[in-house]
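Batch manifest line 435
LIGAND: iron/sulfur cluster
JOB: complex structure
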Amino acid sequence: MIKTALIVPKGSKYGKNTYLKTFLEQNDIVSKFYGAWETPNLSLLTIAGLFPDDYELHFIDEDHGERIPFEEHFDLVLVTGMTQQINRAYEIVKAFRLNQCYTVIGGIHATIYPEEASKYADTVIIGEAEPVFDQFLNDFSNMAARKIYKAECFADIRKSPVPRYDLVNKSLYSSYSIQTTRGCPRTCSYCTLPVMYGSVYRCKSVEQVMSEIRAIKRIEPNPFIFFADDNMFVNRENSKKLIRAIEKEGIIWGTQTDLSVAEDLEILQLLKSSGCRWLFIGFENISRSGLELLDARKWKANLVDRYQKLIDQINRSGIYIWGSFMFGSDHDDSGVFENTLKFAIDNGIYSGSFTIMTPLPGTELFKQMEKNDRIIDYDWSRYTFWDVVYKPKLLTEEELAKGVAYLYHHFYSIDNTRKRMGNIKKLLKKHGQDE
Ligand code: SF4
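JOB STATUS: finished
ARTIFACT:
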């Protein structure tokens, strides 16, 4: 057997923003909301599904507290990592190489900076692994693996394997993720998704998704499933078929989508009856001019006048909204924090993520910031969405770091949590729905 480790490096859960860190680490209400997101790394579990039977696989999740057994010898070590985890990923492969293990790095950061990653790992996989992984394994078994593997096209995800959920230590997780689609046709300047997955929207078959749900149920009979698509309902007709099939599985679930889903009342109804509890929606900014700066095609900006109505429709259908807001665009001044807080509470946003705009490598935003000499920190471990790594325009760095902390303090205060829940309950009562 070929002993293989698949390793998730430790990331920085709440960044180094001192105004925020202590509060987030010690606040019970925030921990309760964020606890719903503890899922094992789906990319590595999917890659695990590509190995033949003569590989002995060990899934090690340092990001959820598992110790990496550096003293053990593995024939092959695969590490993935987002930008904020990459320094740790490099430390891990360096340590295993000293122990004569063959090392591979993949993931979004290695895709953007393969030259950087190849200084540390024996092999770098650029982009999606599926199209090149058989070739890599073949070369590896012939001791002829190349330095770089790069797919010529995006993966046909209808052929992707069922992720190996059976490899995880299930006591570490509160939910499991499944990806039903990849790619997004929108063009938000801060998003790495088009770089990794492209703009063509690819969907798995309904049967494939059902097999994945059943694989999870074999290890956790009553799971909470997080559909980790970046934007789940772009293809509405496909989505409806899928949701009807999910309903038969009797699970509870949540997902990520854009707000335009609220325009389709049939989907909202199906979501509720199929066990969908919440939708994670990226509002990013509550002003049209703020959004225009983030998306050259103004797709999100054109929705902003309907934000309130669309939120109301989702709330009325009995599904909670997890709103995501991002601060520090060139339009944001010191008033943005209070205005957003009021908007989120008044509109019954159930839970919120308040992040600092982060120019991730590979994005249009990063290119613009670099061109204008505005990046102030190239320490990748600070690209967490909680730390300021660039020069904001109408705010100081300190105001931005403090402003996001202000939002967490106030949005998740006991009084405001009651107020938000009260607003949602009133709305549900008015429309004759269960809470
Ligand atoms: S809609 Fe979401 S997934 Fe699509 S490009 Fe924008 S931020 Fe990325």
